[in-house]
Write a structure and sequence with these properties.
Number of helices: 8
Helix content: 10-25%
Low-confidence stretches: 1-23
Structural class: alpha+beta
Shape: globular
Distance between the termini: 38 Å
Number of domains: 3
Strand content: 25-35%
Mean pLDDT: 91
Largest sheet: 6 strands, mixed
Length: about 450
């Protein structure tokens, strides 16, 4: 879940209103500035076929236009510390939604949710389509809107309910008090509840919500908030079901992996998102002895990123991040051309975009990058070879003995596997085997990036 969405949910949990804008009418000077701006916008579109000016100022008033979707601009008017929003048609330059709404959420590229407060600061919501048509959105009884998770097309709702909360910090000694506990729910666009009884902020990662349900007892945590005794699981909003077991005390998203712990917390499990789980060794958080020297060097050279579980296989996105750390270290000021196309599931990641433009990484036929997919050893060799070439490195293949499992190498990877062996950047395993389909860990990735740095620098 994005940082700003978590911040909004934090406001909800604290008991404050989600939206801070105050319902207020625009002053006459702000209205004049808005009218003048709209006149200029329409003239520019008429004269040039596009909008050239995106900012306008007036007396105690500022108007900023920003891209909302393919057909619309968002109009953000700030006057006397009050924000008002509207929607502008890119073709005509005319307002299709007036600048009188207190908040907005961009939805799926064609719809926008706008809200407006009444005199008692109660919000009402509407869906605005690409023509500006407004359709009211009615929340389920008792719930308020927290936020929207665009990658899941799911709304997060909340409500408060009175529950007995054990408070060890009570001034008169430990006591059980009846207090408000915040519950969350997930709902689809039509406000059908997909999952309720969630008593922690549901976090969204890699196609799933981490959700805790089933609490029957609550205990004060610190000076604020209450922790329930429910259990956590990975909830798939597409199927409306939990994937795998729903009996974890906590589930974390570490190094782009789901890690679950059960009640005693002494054992950790890697969750594969398909219902499977693998018990992790106790030393999974430690770097191997063979890797520590080169990992320390990589950290000194600014090439490393923080990994909580370095022995786990690295994801495509995290490997790309390490690759671009090295590229930017060697070429700190070199301009990188924009990629011809951006991946549908990773369009906002500058490392992925830059690596794609340099030819270091490629995507899949369906236009995706699959950032959380782990890489194999032969995939790592291929990306390392491309990175080496982008940094100006050259190799000449020599007639060294082939790996014993050469026949298992993909034709697309064979040249890279032997090129990386020749440079000493990436070697094989025991018994002269390369093991091309084995996973490639974070610590192995860091070590090979450091080795390449030593060669290229």
């Amino acid at each position: 879940m994005k940082r700003f969405q978590k911040a909004l949910l934090g406001v909800v949990v604290s008991g404050a209103l989600l939206f801070s804008a105050q319902a207020a009418e625009l002053s006459s000077s702000a209205q004049d500035t808005l009218q003048s701006a709209m006149t200029k916008v329409q003239q520019e579109i008429k004269d040039y076929g596009q909008l050239k000016t995106l900012g306008f100022t007036g007396e105690n008033c500022e108007i900023i236009l920003s891209n909302l979707n393919a057909k619309q601009y968002l109009v953000n008017l700030t006057a006397d510390s009050t924000h008002k929003y509207g929607i502008l048609d890119k073709t005509t330059g005319k307002l299709v939604v007036p600048v009188e709404y207190d908040y907005y959420i961009a939805l799926d590229g064609t719809e926008t949710l706008v809200s407006q407060y009444d005199a008692d600061h109660h919000p009402s919501y509407w869906f605005a389509d690409e023509t500006g048509k407004l359709t009211p959105m009615k929340l389920p009884s008792g719930y308020e809107l927290a936020t929207y998770e665009p990658n899941s097309n799911v709304f997060v709702l909340f409500k408060n309910a009175k529950k007995p909360v054990y408070d060890p910090y009570s001034g008169d000694g430990p006591a059980t008090l009846i207090e408000d506990v915040t519950f969350f729910a997930l709902a689809d666009r039509d406000m059908n509840i997909i999952l309720d009884d969630i008593d922690m902020v549901p976090d969204w990662y890699a196609d799933f919500f981490i959700a805790k349900t089933g609490s029957t007892k609550w205990e004060r945590v610190g000076k604020a908030g209450a922790d329930g005794n429910g259990t956590c699981g990975l909830f798939d909003p597409k199927t409306g079901k939990f994937v795998g077991k729903h009996d974890f005390n906590q589930i974390f998203w570490y190094d782009q992996h789901f890690i679950g712990t059960r009640s005693r917390g002494t054992k950790s499990y890697l969750l594969d998102g398909k219902g499977g789980e693998t018990l992790l060794p106790a030393n999974v958080k430690e770097y191997s002895s063979w890797a520590k020297t080169e990992v320390a060097a990589a950290e000194e050279h600014g090439l490393i990123e923080s990994f909580s579980y370095p022995k786990l296989d690295i994801t495509r996105e995290n490997f790309t991040m390490l690759a671009m750390n090295l590229y930017n270290k060697i070429y700190p000021n070199k301009e990188i051309p924009a990629p011809e196309t951006k991946f549908a599931d990773c369009s906002d990641d500058p490392n992925v975009n830059n690596a794609a433009a340099l030819g270091i990484v490629t995507g899949y036929e369906d236009g995706t990058f699959r950032p959380y997919k782990t890489i194999s050893r032969q995939e790592a060799a291929t990306m390392l070879d491309r990175l080496y070439a982008a940094l100006g490195g050259q190799t000449e293949l020599i007639a060294d003995p082939a790996y014993a499992d050469d026949a298992q190498l993909g034709d697309w990877a064979r040249g890279s596997v032997y090129a990386m062996r020749q440079t000493g950047i990436m070697q094989g395993k025991e018994n002269n085997r390369f093991c091309p389909t084995d996973g490639y860990t974070a610590e192995q990735s860091i070590v090979t990036i450091e080795r390449m740095y030593q060669i290229i620098k």
